């Protein structure tokens, strides 16, 4: 079954905790967004893990270098999964994977900015990552003509375990599931909704 991951792209620990409390019953994975971690530091990871020990806590570090060190400090803070950029050197990904293996946790590779996402997804899967994120970032989503369909096609073609992130919402989630994604990531569609719990529940019901 496709899991639902909420991406919390808010800026304070208090706001993140409040959102997580509302949506946790409807999601499988709680992601601490990159701006949140940069704003609040690793303490936000510990705060969310302490509040939701039963959830998979995903720290969107977007690591580009020093893979082992960055992964290790996030795992020590309570993260279950961390992201490393697919544009990073293989050695950075391998370092993070080694830190994950030592901690009994996992690494996700974010393909934001990667030209041939299907080929890179296959290559990094062979390095031992949990899954690969087919991702169009917030800036790419804002470009004229952006379409999630290209990401979904690339993900399906990869034949590896993958998630999809890029403005996933109630209109596109069925296509994400149909593409065979292991995880559907939704940020703005949940935290930007008038009723985030209702929005998360609606997305989850499409995946069941
Ligand atoms: O990692 C991110 C941006 O770099 C976002 O968390 C991700 O894109 C999901 O958010 P949204 O559904 O709003 O696109």
TrEMBL record:
Q: Which family does it belong to?
A: Belongs to the HPS/KGPDC family. HPS subfamily.
The UniProt entry's coiled-coil ranges are none
Look up and give the organism this protein is from.
Zhihengliuella halotolerans
Q: What is the lineage of its organism?
A: Bacteria, Bacillati, Actinomycetota, Actinomycetes, Micrococcales
**Which NCBIfam families does its entry note?**
RuMP_HxlA
| EC number in record | 4.1.2.43
Swiss-Prot/TrEMBL GO biological process terms = 'de novo' pyrimidine nucleobase biosynthetic process; L-ascorbic acid catabolic process
Give the transmembrane region(s): none
Reply yes or no: does the keyword Ion transport apply: no
Q: Which SMART domains match?
A: OMPdecase
Carries keyword Lyase?
yes
Q: Which InterPro entries match?
A: 3-hexulose-6-phosphate_synth, Aldolase_TIM, OMPdeCOase_dom, RibuloseP-bd_barrel
Q: Which UniProt keywords apply?
A: Carbohydrate metabolism, Lyase
| GO-annotated molecular function | 3-dehydro-L-gulonate-6-phosphate decarboxylase activity; hexulose-6-phosphate synthase activity; orotidine-5'-phosphate decarboxylase activity
- Where is the Orotidine 5'-phosphate decarboxylase domain positioned along the sequence? 3-203
Pathway where this protein functions: One-carbon metabolism; formaldehyde assimilation via RuMP pathway; D-fructose 6-phosphate from D-ribulose 5-phosphate and formaldehyde: step 1/2
User: What is this protein called in UniProt?
Assistant: 3-hexulose-6-phosphate synthase
Q: Which SUPFAM superfamilies match?
A: Ribulose-phoshate binding barrel
